[in-house]
Amino acid sequence: MPDTAAAVVSPRGAHRLVRGHPWVFRSDVDGRPDAAAGVVPIYDGHGRPLGWGLWSPRSEIALRLLDSAPGARIDGAWWMTRIATALARREAVSRDSSAYRVVHGEADGCPSLVCDRYDRWLVVQLMSAGLEACRSDIVAALQDAMQPLGILARHDAAVRRKEGLDETVEVLAGDVPTEIEIVEHGVRYLAAPWSGQKTGAFLDQRENRALMGELARGRALDCFSYHGSFALHLARRAAHVTALDSSAAALARAADNATLNGATNITFVEDDAFTYLKSAERSRARFDIVVLDPPAFAKTRASVGAALRGYQEINLRGMRLLEPGGLLYTASCSHHVSRAAFLDMLATAAGDSGRRLALRRVLGQASDHPEVLSIPETGYIKGALVEALD
Question: Three-class SS of residue 102?
Answer without folding.
Answer: strand
